[in-house]
Structure formats: structure tokens, C-alpha cells
Write a structure and sequence with these properties.
The protein is of the alpha+beta class. It folds into two domains: 148 residues, Glutaredoxin; 47 residues, no CATH class. The protein contains six helices and nine strands, in the order βββααβαβαββββαα. Strands 2-1-5-4-3-8-9 form a seven-stranded mixed β-sheet. It is globular and about 60 Å long.
Length: 209
């Protein structure tokens, strides 16, 4: 079930903030009424595709911040593993220099509540409880507004990395809608024409393109 248009699931979990400090209780509720959030799941620390995404978000962090958007990452690893990875140099496969929060979902409840857990617990034919699938999160990305409502979500399979510029485009589109009351057509980018959500508005836009 999609979370778009619904309140993002609430959680309190450990996290590493500022690339060096473990906090025992981190929640997205701290951003309500203050900032939008780009909340993204990744499969696992100390892997291969994941650091490229995490570092790419860090490289674009200033672009998100100037738009009033907080970036928060999360995986099913522990906070201690997050910290160890954050303290490892990039040339050694680490993510040193990442400053936005990384949440530890070691119970897998956050991934499950957001619908991105790549497996689940089930009983086998012998009545034994076992995990089917991968005990990690898919590459889910959720854009959450200041009211805590999910406005955009994408979920990639494990091998498929994200386009961070597309996440920024989504933010720009949402801000344009909020400011101008227009809707954004296919391939819209900041500076391009949008259109009114009326028959006349659509016809006018199509006629000019």
C-alpha cells in the first residue's frame, strides 16, 4: 500500500547525527512544522552501491538545505555499525564526511511500517519461524511535507541506485505547486512552464508546446 497522501509512520530509534554522535531516541517528529524531509532507506552498511548514494546525498545536502529540506537516511544496521562506517575513510569504502542523520532500524520495524522491508518472518512447513527474503530494506525514498504527510515515494530493488537530482526536482515541483497553485507536467524542471489544473489551462499549455 502506498503511503502517498498519508501521515508518515511514527518511530523513535537510535541514530548517528553529525557523523559522530549516537543519540538513543531520534524521530522525524522534530521536523513537523519546521522542515520537509527526504527520508531514504538503503540496504546495508559496508556495501557497494549504498555508499555511492549516501555520499551523493551529502554532496547535494546544501541544495536540499537551501530548500528547507532535511535529509535523513536509515538502514537495518545498528547505530554502532553506522558510526564505524562513518568513521571509515572513503578510500577504504567508508562514508566519512556525511553529516546528516543515519537512523538504526535494527528491529526492522521502521522498514516494515514504511513497506520497504525486502522479506518477512513466516512459519515453514515444520512450524519453525524463519525469515523469507532479504532482512534488509529496499531503496525506498519518501518526501515528507511539514505536516508529516508523504507527498512522494519511490522504491527501488536492491541493485538499482537512485538519481539524487530527481529527488531535488521533486522538491522543486512540490514547492512550485504550493506557491503558484499550478500542476507540473511530465519532465517539468524549475524555470519551465507549469499549467493550471483546468481544461483551459491544459489546452493552453499543450498549444504552446
Amino acid at each position: 500500500m502506498s503511503l502517498v497522501g498519508k501521515k508518515a509512520p511514527v518511530f523513535n530509534a537510535p541514530a548517528v547525527i553529525n557523523g559522530e554522535e549516537i543519540v538513543e531516541s531520534f524521530s522525524l517528529e522534530q521536523y513537523i512544522g519546521k522542515k520537509e524531509v527526504m527520508f531514504f532507506f538503503y540496504p546495508k552498511d559496508f556495501t557497494f552501491v549504498c555508499p555511492t548514494e549516501i555520499l551523493a546525498f551529502q554532496e547535494k545536502l546544501g541544495e536540499f538545505e537551501k530548500r528547507g529540506v532535511a535529509v535523513v537516511g536509515v538502514s537495518c544496521d545498528t547505530e554502532e555499525t553506522h558510526l564505524a562506517w562513518l568513521m571509515t575513510a572513503k578510500e577504504n569504502g567508508g562514508i566519512e564526511g556525511v553529516k546528516y542523520p543515519l537512523v538504526a532500524d535494527s528491529t526492522k520495524t521502521i522498514a516494515s511500517n514504511f513497506g520497504v522491508l525486502a522479506g518477512d518472518w513466516n512459519y515453514n512447513e515444520e512450524g519453525e519461524l524463519s525469515f523469507e527474503g532479504a532482512p534488509v530494506a529496499f531503496r525506498g525514498t519518501f518526501f515528507i511535507d511539514k505536516d508529516g504527510v508523504v507527498r512522494h515515494e519511490t522504491i527501488n530493488d536492491l541493485p538499482l541506485g537512485r538519481n539524487i537530482d530527481e529527488m531535488i526536482r521533486i522538491v522543486d515541483a512540490w514547492h512550485h505547486v504550493q506557491e503558484h497553485g499550478e500542476v507540473c507536467p511530465a519532465n517539468w524542471e524549475e524555470g519551465k512552464d507549469a499549467m493550471q489544473a483546468t481544461r483551459d489551462g491544459v489546452a493552453s499549455y499543450l498549444a504552446s508546446h
